[in-house]
Specification:
This protein has 153 residues and is an alpha/beta fold. It contains 7 helices and 5 strands; from the N terminus they run βαααβαβαβαβα. Helix 4 links the parallel strand 2 and strand 3. Helix 3 runs parallel beside helix 7. The longest helix is centred in the middle third of the chain and has 17 residues. The two termini are 15 Å apart.
Length: 153
């Protein structure tokens, strides 16, 4: 069976909301918060768990929204910043979707079929997920990822 783990970025693995003046910068189309955001977790531990899941056959996808009400020029800057962030922290993904704010995230991975787990901090997005299960990124995601590993063992 296909197994896909879908990660959001902002507020899930990247602490965008912890960057001082993040909202003002986004409204002014300044990509600084996406560049300066720190990881919410130890990336060594997170990446180790993800690599172990990949060894068990999980596909890892990043599906993240761009800034709300943004121009095409700003979207391009945000895409560049998010890709650089993932590279900087060696996040081990197989596929990425950098999509307009409000896009239904399931539409990005529905074609994979199988069982899909969404890791997201947005309750509304999690509640709308119908492709499998969700992990609430407002809680420690390590425990949930370890549980996925143990189910496969």
């Amino acid at each position: 069976m296909n197994k896909t783990l879908v990660f959001d970025m902002d507020g899930t693995i990247a602490d965008l909301y912890g960057v001082e003046n993040w909202l003002e910068d986004l409204r002014n189309e300044n990509p600084r918060p996406y560049i300066e955001a720190k990881p919410l977790y130890s990336m060594f531990v997170l990446n180790t768990l993800i690599e172990a899941l990949k060894e068990q056959g999980w596909r890892v996808v990043v599906t993240t929204w761009l800034a709300k009400d943004s121009s095409k020029e700003y979207d391009a800057l945000v895409r560049e910043a998010k890709l650089a962030w993932l590279e900087k922290y060696y996040f081990p993904y197989d596929e990425i979707h950098l999509v307009k704010y409000g896009t239904t995230k399931a539409n990005c991975t529905r074609r994979h079929g199988g069982f899909q787990v969404l890791v997201d901090d947005n309750e509304k997005v999690r509640n709308g997920w119908r492709l499998g299960d969700t992990i609430n990124a407002n809680e420690n995601i390590f425990e949930a990822l370890v549980n996925l590993l143990e189910k496969e063992a």
